[in-house]
Amino acid sequence: MLAVGILTEVFGPHGAAVPGFDFALCADRAGPVPTDCGVPLSLPHGLDRLATADLVVALPGAGFRTPPGPAVLDALRAAHERGAVVAAHCVGTFTLAAAGLLDGRRATTHWRFAELLAERHPRVTVESDALYIDEGSVVTGAGAAAGFDLCLHLLRREHGAALANAVARDVVLPSHRDGGQAQYLATPVPEDGRDERLAEVLGWAREHLHEPLPVTELARRALMSRRSFARRFTAATGTTPHAWLRNLRLSRAEELLETTDLTIEEIARRVGYGSAAVLREQFVRRRGVPPRSYRRAFANAPR
């Protein structure tokens, strides 16, 4: 039911300010479907609904150790072959693997079952520490709430940062999380006020992206040495301060490209890059296209 809720929250209606999706839940046959919380779902659609879908998401279920029937696997393969994006998160990844859609590709799943996935499907490169892995027409995500990360990534990839941010705000979530699953496996109780100070510094950095923001300055504001700050930062976020700042700057640049008419030079200045050329270099590495091409592609993104 968690997975159903995640998909419904992201792709369901969000009001007039956010474009709607033609969203439907289906099963191998229409009718009641049991759930893990004891409340059955009555699904009106069978596998024929997959024939026209642009995105098909295989949801996780308690019986994931047993592959679904041939009709389900054939429907997934047919959807992929005609050009639909096929995705799954948590143990739903096992369904895509059973259909052969992950052979020769990288994939992730819930960390607890990553080893089992690798054992059963040796042609799949399983990366247990990723929140999601994008292989183009096939996208997989980690366990439980990482389904939100997967869905918001798909929104961002296909429709731009503005729409992903709008939906994320509506469901009260960050539009993007850095790092992998490891940072969420065990959250220690803070021994002192350092975690609070770190959160304050990260908030301050978000408000000062136009400044250089060297790690030494962030560490000073956190009342830590540079080495202690870097270690604490990585433990808390799963990534380095430099990588976190780079992602933050580029995400902000994407939003400004979509929602404003600012010049590339001004956007570069506002997100902390010394020139448009530096922004372009970093943007191409992340998106594969220069900022102007990205702006043209998402010129009609919601504001």
**In one word, what is the shape?**
globular
Query: Helical segment tally?
Result: 14
Biggest β-sheet: strands ordered side by side in the sheet: 3-4-8-7
> What distance lies between the first and last C-alpha atoms, to the nearest angstrom?
32 Å
By secondary-structure content and strand pairing, the structural class works out as alpha/beta
Strand/helix succession: HEEEHEHEHEEEHHHHHHHHHH
**Biggest sheet overview:** 4 strands, mixed
| Gyration radius, rounded | 21 Å
Average pLDDT taken over every residue: 89
Unreliably modeled segments: 183-193
Strand content range = 5-15%
Helix fraction? Answer: 40-55%
Word description of this protein:
It is a single chain. This protein has 303 residues and is of the alpha/beta class. It is built from 14 helices and eight strands. The strands form three sheets. Strands 3-4-8-7 form a four-stranded mixed β-sheet. It is globular, with a radius of gyration of 21 Å. 33% of the residues are buried. Mean pLDDT is 89; it is low at 183-193.
Question: Care to give the gist of this entry?
Answer:
This protein is an alpha/beta fold.
List keywords for this structure.
303 residues; alpha/beta; two-stranded antiparallel ribbon; 9% strand
Task: Please render the helix and strand layout as text.
Elements: H1 2-11, E1 31-33, E2 41-43, E3 55-58, H2 70-81, E4 85-89, H3 93-98, E5 106-107, H4 114-120, E6 125-126, E7 132-134, E8 138-141, H5 146-159, H6 161-170, H7 182-185, H8 194-207, H9 215-221, H10 226-237, H11 241-259, H12 264-270, H13 276-287, H14 291-297
Parallel strand pairs: 3-4, 4-8, 5-6
Antiparallel strand pairs: 1-2, 7-8
Helix pairs in contact: 1-5, 5-6, 9-10
